[in-house]
């Protein structure tokens, strides 16, 4: 799978020292609204649109179990893999994150016509 790797932070130190836990950080990347969140399990990126009925997940909240909870019907999704942990068989779109010496990057799948 080919990805566009887009830098979102300049360094690992920036994430460790300046990003608050459990705070949604919104980005508009390649036309997709993506939230990044730091938890005690790491850094995660997910699409803002709830797969159930399209609510903005940035208006929801994060649980101690590393889930994001939708504000509309309270379905929850595992931040690590997007699987629904309550509410039904929905899958939230998630994105890989890579931490490198020159920054922190989110991977967005390249479309077949971009390859
Ligand atoms: S729109 Fe998110 S749970 Fe229904």
What can be said about this structure in brief?
The protein is mainly beta. It is 6% helix and 43% strand.
The shape, in one word, is: globular
Unreliable stretches covering 5 or more consecutive residues: none
What portion of residues is helical?
under 10%
Number of strands: 11
Relevant CATH superfamily: Rieske [2Fe-2S] iron-sulphur domain
Largest sheet: 4 strands, antiparallel
Write the layout of secondary structure elements.
Blueprint: E1 3-9, H1 12-18, E2 25-29, E3 32-39, E4 42-47, E5 61-62, E6 67-69, E7 76-78, E8 84-86, E9 94-95, E10 97-100, E11 103-109
Antiparallel strand pairs: 1-11, 2-3, 3-4, 4-9, 5-6, 6-7, 7-8, 10-11
The chain binds FE2/S2 (inorganic) cluster.
What do you see in this structure?
With 115 residues, this protein is mainly beta. The strands form three sheets. It has a four-stranded antiparallel beta sheet with strand order 2-3-4-9, with no helix packed on it. A four-stranded antiparallel beta sheet has the order 5-6-7-8, with no helix packed on it. Strands 1-11-10 form a three-stranded antiparallel beta sheet. The chain is globular. The model has no long low-confidence stretch (mean pLDDT 95). Bound molecules: FE2/S2 (inorganic) cluster.
Which properties best describe this structure?
single chain; 115 residues; mainly beta; Rieske Iron-sulfur Protein; four-stranded antiparallel β-sheet; 1 helix; globular; binds FE2/S2 (inorganic) cluster
